[in-house]
What we know:
- The structure holds 2 protein chains of 2 kinds.
- Chain A has no helices and 11 strands.
- Chain A starts with a strand and ends with a strand.
- In chain A, the strands form 2 sheets. In chain A, strands 2, 4, 5, 6, 9, 10 and 11 form a 7-stranded mixed beta sheet that branches.
- Helices cover 0% and strands 49% of the residues of chain A.
- Chain A is mainly β.
- Chain A has strands at residues 4-7, 10-13, 19-25, 31-37, 44-51, 54-57, 64-66, 76-78, 87-94, 102-103, 107-111.
- Chain B is an all-beta fold.
- In chain B, 0% of the residues lie in helices and 61% in strands.
- Chain B has strands at residues 4-7, 10-14, 19-25, 31-37, 43-49, 52-56, 59-64, 69-74, 83-91, 95-98, 102-107.
- The N and C termini of chain B lie far apart (36 Å).
- The chains are: A mainly beta, B mainly beta.
Amino acid sequence: xxxxxxxPKFQVLKTGQSMTLQCAQDMNHEYMSWYRQDxxxxxxxxxxxxxxxxxxxGEVPNGYNVxxxxxxxxxxxxxxxxxxxxxxxxxxxxxxVYTEAFFGQGTRLTVV
Amino acid sequence: xxEVEQSPQNLTAQEGEFITINCSYSVGISALHWLQQxxxxxxxxxxxxxxxxxxxxxxxxxxxIQEKHSSLxxxxxxxxxxxxxxxxxxxGAQKLVFGQGTRLTINP
Lengths: 112, 108
């Protein structure tokens, strides 16, 4: 049972490049979400999904796209990276928002 | 003003002390989570509360919905409890809003 697998762990991008952060869970969780964590600020919700085919925006969605084609996977896409997207990103999953959340190990992204 | 305020921001204590971390929120919520972020960065869920009190080992979490306040207590604190503790509130149907975290250091 791997839990929530998030890759990569570290990434450096140049401004304007695109990339996809991968998130996969093997617990058959319906609710999955992406957060960013910046110094001096709490975790902020980027996008979330309540099941395959259903996604919605969180607090800071601009510059990010998501899709949920399967229950297991919830990738986060940066279409044109900007220095303001330098952050630590966490993926999480749970049966619902009312149950225990499981977090990935995080991705430290630097955009130069 | 943040919707979720945690206090204190930093807390240093000696091993064995009783620890209290507070979380206040300004809007109506349907649930509240307490999380622990280890020095290495990993995040684990400690509690989810919608009312009353929960206990797990040396950790106790309480919530007062009317006063919009929750506390996390650690009894007989240990250096391995050193971490950042994060409060998150569920607003509306599906969105979690997080506090900035409380950095706890327990000295031996």
